[in-house]
Design a protein that fits this description.
Order of helices and strands: EHHEHHEHHEE
Radius of gyration: 14 Å
Shape: globular
CATH class: Alpha Beta
CATH architecture: 3-Layer(aba) Sandwich
Number of helices: 6
Number of strands: 5
Number of domains: 1
Structural class: alpha/beta
């Protein structure tokens, strides 16, 4: 099974990729291999979250940032999504949703791309406008 040409990637798969003790490390390696030439899109909120959670190792942070520079398309328009992010944070406050997740939902809506890669089960709950569901391609193993 091949995966979609463009995938919005959350922090979990990237943390797992650079932390070999993470329970999703092997799945992250397999996902990156399956992704092949797909464009992996994220934003600065997610980049910040990844580097923060890799703070146990300068080398892991450095390696991640070097990889990210080559492997990711980093969206620069998160600030334009601010009203939508705030609305999503309010809507999903009972989960609770965090800024990075809400910013990715808004990014998916703006790019009209609902293929995500996340270890976060909340992406089975989140809905984009018009009740659009997300297709989490991280766990597609076919």
């Amino acid at each position: 099974m091949t995966i979609s040409q463009r995938i919005i990637i959350d922090s979990g798969p990237m943390i797992a990729l650079f932390d070999n003790s993470d329970k999703y490390h092997q799945l992250a390696l397999a996902f990156i291999k399956r992704a092949g030439n797909a464009t992996l899109v994220t934003n600065i909120a997610v980049i910040t979250e990844v580097t923060h959670l890799l703070d146990f190792s300068f080398a892991a942070q450095r390696d991640f940032l070097q990889w990210a520079e080559r492997a990711l398309a980093v969206d620069q328009q998160t600030i334009s999504d601010w009203p939508r992010v705030l609305w999503l944070l309010e809507k999903y406050q009972d989960l609770p949703a965090d800024f990075a997740d809400a910013s990715l939902v808004a990014l998916c809506e703006r790019l009209n791309c609902f293929n995500v890669a996340s270890v976060d089960s909340d992406f089975t709950i989140y809905r984009a406008r018009k009740n659009q569901i997300f297709d989490n391609q991280f766990f597609n193993v076919g």
